[in-house]
Write a structure and sequence with these properties.
Blueprint lengths: L14 H36 L5 H32 L12 H15 L2 H10 L2 H8 L3 H25 L1 H4 L4 H16 L3 H20 L1
Helix pairs in contact: 1-2, 1-8, 2-6, 3-6, 3-9, 4-6, 8-9
């Protein structure tokens, strides 16, 4: 896959390599988050319409742009991280960690974060679109952008550790991308989503320890 993007495992990255990697992460993050943010976007559009606001489509698009801006920033960080791992020769051709210790450390950190109050708080906000709109409503185009950015921040706080797991299973593994997308949706939509998140966190810690040992 890296070869198909014009990248090699044994050569330093060029500016185009960095750009295409960033673009890959940005598109991937938007695609993975789209299913779980859709209920919020639909509810925001309905709220705008019920208030008799003009330009409902523009406001919704602006909200979405604020949301995407957060994940674009994450994509930049992920790109730098991937570049660093490449420079340290710690990535395989499948863009997965080639070190058992690194893989284990990522899984343990991601799993531990799943059990923290920060994760639970962010997940609670993501699981309650109506509550978010009622407590964070802002009028106008700038207000819509700020709301989208704030919701994106909660979503990032909820999911950043899960996205880091891609460095363990393979950044371009379509199967794992689909699996993580489905898991994020389960966390945010299903009634038992919070419990599923904690069970998964405990499982990741166990797998992380196994990977290191």
């Amino acid at each position: 896959m890296m070869a198909a993007m014009g990248m090699t495992m044994d050569m330093p990255w060029s500016a185009s390599d960095i750009f295409f990697t960033f673009a890959m992460w940005a598109v991937m993050m938007v695609g993975m988050m789209a299913p779980s943010v859709s209920p919020m976007l639909l509810l925001f559009a309905a709220a705008q319409s019920s208030r008799g606001k003009r330009g409902v489509s523009l406001a919704t698009l602006t909200f979405a742009l604020g949301y995407v801006a957060v994940w674009t920033c994450f994509s930049a960080v992920a790109t730098v991280t991937q570049w660093g791992l490449h420079q340290a020769a710690m990535l395989s051709a499948a863009m997965a960690s080639s070190s058992g210790r690194l893989s284990g450390a990522i899984l343990i950190v991601a799993g531990a974060y799943q059990l923290t109050p920060w994760k639970n708080s962010c997940l609670t906000h993501c699981r309650s679109p109506l509550g978010f709109l009622m407590t964070n409503w802002r009028d106008g185009t700038i207000g819509a952008y700020r709301m989208g950015f704030r919701h994106g921040a909660y979503c990032l706080g909820c999911c950043w550790a899960l996205m880091c797991v891609l460095f363990v299973v393979g950044v371009m593994s379509l199967i794992w991308i689909a699996a993580l997308t489905g898991f994020v949706l389960i966390e945010k939509i299903l009634p038992a989503g919070a419990i599923v998140a904690r069970v998964a966190g405990a499982a990741m810690i166990v797998f992380g320890i196994v990977a290191i040992v």
